[in-house]
Amino acid sequence: MATDFWASSHNKRWIIDRASLKQARSEDLRYVESPEHVDFLNIYFANLIAMLGKRLTLRQRVIATATVFFRRFYVKNLYCETDPFIVIAACCYVAAKAEESPVHIKNVVSESRLMFSQEGYGVKNFPSDNSKLAEMEFYLVSDLECDLVVFHPYRTLLTLCGREAAHAVVSEAGEVGVGIDNGPRYWGTGEGRLELEEGPLQTAWHVIPPPPSTLHSTLLRPKTDQIRALNRFIINDTYRSELCLLYPPHMIAIAAIYLTLVLNDKTREAIQAQTASSTPTPTPRRSSRTNTSSVHRKLAAAPQQQQDFVGFMAGLRVSLPTVAMIAQEILSLYTLWERYSDAAPESGLGQSAVGDTAGDDVVTPAFLTQLLLRMREARLADLAHPASAQPMAVNKRLERTQAAG
Amino acid sequence: MVDDWSQAIQHDVMRIYRAKRDEAHRSVTLKYTILGFISSGTYGRVYKAQSKDEDARLHAIKKFKPDKDGDIATYTGISQSAIREIALNREICHENIVALKEVILEDKSIYMVFEYAEHDFLQVIHHYSQTLRSHIPHDLLKSLIFQLLNGLLYLHDSHILHRDLKPANILITSTGIVKIGDLGLARLTYQPLQPLFAGDKVVVTIWYRSPELLMGSKHYHKAVDCWAVGCVMAELASLRPIFKGEEAKLDSKKNVPFQKDQLLKVIEVLGKPDEREWSGMKNTPEYHNVKRLDDSPNRLDAWCKQRNLPPLAINFLSKLFIYDPDKRMKAREALSHSWFQEDPQPTFNVFQHQLNTPSQLPPHRRITLDEAPSMMPAQPTHAQHFPAQFTQPQHLPGQTHGSGTSLASLSVGHGGHTRKKARLG
């Protein structure tokens, strides 16, 4: 199970198609002016999970698991009918246990209260009572159908990038077993590992270096140190989107490797040199596409370089069009993210919540919290008034709960 | 009125959500008829139940203790052990592991619904030692161990350590299939974020605990389960635990003490571990304590011969009792051991050779009325007719149902010794 993704609950029950995902958000979309706002909420909540995770000193994998739990929960539920803040806290609490590094419920409650009450988030009524969070945990585990083992792209990365794994023991010890033999890969690839060098490739991949790397300068505008720390990994970044619901983790990892290869100056040049010597490239439409198509090409004529990146990608025996699609989605996530700023709560800057117009304005947490409240009010009004859905049923339910609690 | 309502909702947004979920919920008693109480432990209670579906299948429902704040049950967070057992059981599927049918979260309690198993290893041991007063037939013993290892191999291949293998936790269905149960102490060891020791200071019930654990190793692996299999096999052969030591209790600061008595019991049979054969021994925290213990010769061979084990079985057992965990026989190697190739070969139904002599078969699991506040339907004075529900033979013919011969409990130890391991953290 730990090694067999195909037999896992993750693969069997939690990879969903785009139509189901669209269906899950359709009600929420009724209450926002622009569909983009829901995407911004996706980024916002993932950031909150990451930040709460840091406060609780959770490892990156735990934060990733918490985010997946959160996404799964909202496949079944609506933003406008629930309180995402307590769901976030419960996701972190359960993920820590599921990943065998538990934190005390008391700490989760106090850290959540502290963080969410900050100006910029403006959540004033986070419950102080442990039992409220424990109750949410109960409902959350039930909605997750008790599927608590989650697969992440990190593992593929470490397996595919052979030498990297050795370095990672130092930098990212969390992802490496303690004296335990590694299981076989679970996606059935070709052979060979990608040898990552000490140079730009590794750094672009693992830690964005202080001098802006290609990726960073072209895709992300500079942010505060704290936020940049969160932006360090492409894979981590993918959790800001709903990719983890749509694609198996190894495909996301491969897309991230691919992006790293084509966005890093050195490796891009190597690939270009490798492909230039073979058949001429078709007219490029977009830069990323060029490289996608070149990846498809057989490497027969390629000169024997120290690293055969094209051959490596071709040898993976996964659907490269799908990899390209995921890569595109990651790029559009970065485009969207560029307009999001959550510098506000920590530094006290940028409290200027932007108006209702979506446009190209910067979106802040304060704006999104307000948006969420408005969505919720509008939803309540709809539920309460006979004009929309089935108000009688809802009222009855409500009376029952009021009588009960 | 709508205003009041929306205020209340803004105050506790999750009300609508909970109301929806509660309404959709199908309760345990709606889905299952509770037939009786099987056993209890630190985790909670186990009930025998029958599905109200058409298949009317039997189940064992494990109800985790609800957390209590005084007399009122409250939410205090799901325990690490419950999370583990649920998470692991949702992923695994193997013939020799008890299958989880579903988990129901209801009214602050967690109910895990498992397939029902009529017998367990401990019950078989008791049946032979108390009722039949004879050895367990060699074919039965071999089949039990073979299927146990088959299940264990699946767990280990899935990077799961069981960490609590003992006769009471290894079940057998009425059709003679061995099922490993109770994954409450099991854990996934693939790329752990913390050393195993950090989560649980003490693992494995003392009599089945491997030497590396007894000597305080903080890093360990599958071999701890393989040692436990050896202990279980020896117990099947002699009808009593082979290393029946006294557990030294944790001190007030919850430090783990040196398990001297248990180690002495091991050394009595196997002799003292030799540094030349187990180089890692020097690095264990209790190394110096062990060095001071008296030596004794290895008399496993004689021990086995007294219990009529054939030479290949002795060879097999001695490999499970290798001190060095890295050299100890693992599940895969064990399954291809020549003992299993030799006649009698292991059978699909472990009771294959006992089917013609039904008295050889262990009795059905005894169930009782639950004396504690429980999920049993309130039945005023039904003491006489209640047992009729469960003493009728269901699958196996002609059994003895004497209450003295069967065990009331799945996991509570026999012989007045505490078999429970301390759970910390």
Helicity level of chain B, as a percent range?
25-40%
What is the typical, i.e. mean, pLDDT of chain B? 85
CATH top level of the largest domain in chain A is Mainly Alpha
How far is the N terminus from the C terminus of chain A? 41 Å
The assigned structural class of chain A equals mainly alpha
- Mean pLDDT rating of chain A: 73
What are the low-pLDDT stretches of chain B, counting only 5+ consecutive residues below 50?
380-425
Sheet with the most strands, sense and barrel status of chain A: none
Count of individual beta strands of chain A: 0
- Rg value of chain B: 23 Å
Distance between the termini of chain B: 49 Å
Q: What is the 3D shape of chain B?
A: globular
What order do the helices and strands of chain B follow? HHHEEEEEHEEEHHEEEEHHHHHHHHHH
The CATH architecture classification of the largest domain in chain A is: Orthogonal Bundle
Q: Major sheet of chain B: order of its strands?
A: 1-2-3-7-6
Low-pLDDT regions of chain A: 163-192, 197-232, 280-305, 344-359, 388-397
Number of domains of chain A: 2
Number of helices of chain B: 16
Return the string of H and E elements of chain A: HHHHHHHHHHHHHHHHHHHHHH
Strand percentage of chain B lies at 5-15%
EC number (chain B): 2.7.11.22, 2.7.11.23
GO molecular function (chain B): ATP binding; cyclin-dependent protein serine/threonine kinase activity; metal ion binding; RNA polymerase II CTD heptapeptide repeat kinase activity
Family (chain B): Belongs to the protein kinase superfamily. CMGC Ser/Thr protein kinase family. CDC2/CDKX subfamily.
InterPro entries (chain B): CDK, Kinase-like_dom_sf, Prot_kinase_dom, Ser/Thr_kinase_AS
